[in-house]
Amino acid sequence: MDVHPIPQNVTSFQFKLVGDMTLKQFGYLAAGSAFAYFVFIVFARDYPFIAWPVIVFSALLGIGFAFLPIASRPLDYWLVAFLKAVYSPTYRVWKKNRKTFKEEPLFNSRLAMYLAGQPTVQPAPTPQPIAQPVQPVDISELPTHEELQKTVDLARQAQQLQMRIIQTERTLSQIKTETQKPTPIPVDYTQQVNVILADLQNLVTQASAIKQQIQSVTEEPPAKTEPVIPPVTKEKVKIIIPAKPKQTQIALTTFPNVINGIVKDKENNYLEGVVAVIYDKEGLPVRALKTNKLGQFTSSTPLPNGTYTLELEKDDFTFDVLQMELTGEILPPLMITAK
Predict the structure, then answer these.
(1) Which of 33, 106, 282, 325 counts the highest number of beta carbons within 10 A?
(2) d(Cα 35, Cα 8) in Å, to the nearest integer?
């Protein structure tokens, strides 16, 4: 076997001028010596106290750049690194939407404001209404302290009921969104939806009762022939009675030509472990599925258009043989009941 030389980085080779002194080292030494000689010729006779320190420093600087390495690096390398660090600092400023956040007046005090729990942006002051001349008010016609307290309590209860109604509606919307997402294991939300609807109906009934009480407390007296003093404005709570949502059928899939269904017994209980086999028009099995704890089964991939037969099997139960035609549409769940 022939011996081949190991490749070497020839670009790092430097020409040696005298001994181990390279051409670059000779240039540094010559530059320092030439500058020292120039200062000696021009300034040494007239200004010896200034010229001689410059001469010595220049000569030593040329010798240092030529022969004095630091951490196996020459002085010119450290000089270049220092200049890069000075003129290219690693400093970053956060900008967003063409705005530099360092220029914000509260940027430097953001840590203190965060620890104090104070918001960085103060809300704008609300405009004050123009003062109107106040007419004398008959104290006997003002509501009593008990009526005011009762009105405030009813308003607080109505506000809490309104928040609970909004939260219940939000929960129903989340359940509706979850039912529309395809999942490998279908989930039955029927019992949870029924509980939420019952709570919502109870909240609506309580809100209606509180609304009637507020109307009975805040009912104004009949008008008189005398000048009527403007009543004290009270904050009225608007109770929103949402319409009862329609209960929709839960979809087990959102893909077309996917056969799915729910299997129950005669007592309307879900059957787990029922084997569902799908055959094509030639009688060949194309899918084999199994129901979960909620009696649900669904195929993972769509089937081509055509005629298919569905047969169900489980011990001590008998089922009808179902035949269906797939035409590229989303199939609703098949509700299958054992005989």
Answers:
(1) 33
(2) 38
Question: Please, which pLDDT band fits residue 169 given cuts at 50, 70 and 90?
Answer: confident
Q: What is the DSSP letter of 12?
A: G
Distant-in-sequence, close-in-space partners of 172: CB < 8 Å, separation ≥ 6: 193, 196, 197, 200, 245
Of 169, 168, 159, nearest to 210 by C-alpha is 159
* CB distance 52 to 26 below 8 Å: no
| C-alpha torsion 322→324→330→334, nearest 10 | -10
Task: Tell me, letter by letter, the H, E, C secondary structure of 215-228.
Answer: HHHCCCCCCCCCCC
Note the CATH number of domain 260-337: 2.60.40.10
Residue 16 vs residues 11, 21, 35, 69: alpha-carbon distances, Å: 14, 6, 24, 17
- How confident is the model at residue 311, as a pLDDT? 92
Question: Is pLDDT of 268 > 80?
Answer: yes
- Is residue 286 within a helix (H) or strand (E), and if so which, with residue range? strand 285-290
pLDDT tens by residue, 70-112: 888 888 888 888 888 887 766 667 777 777 665 555 666 667 7
The one-letter code for the residue type at 236 is K
Nearest-angstrom CA–CA distance, 296 and 262: 4
DSSP state of 314: B
pLDDT band for position 309 (50/70/90)? very high
Query: Are the C-beta atoms of 121 and 105 separated by less than 8 Å?
Result: no
Task: Give CA separation, 184 vs 252, 253, 290, 297, 331, in Å.
Answer: 9, 9, 13, 10, 17
Domain ranges of the chain: 12-119, 144-217, 260-337
Q: Is the pLDDT of residue 245 over 50?
A: no
The pTM for the full model equals 0.30
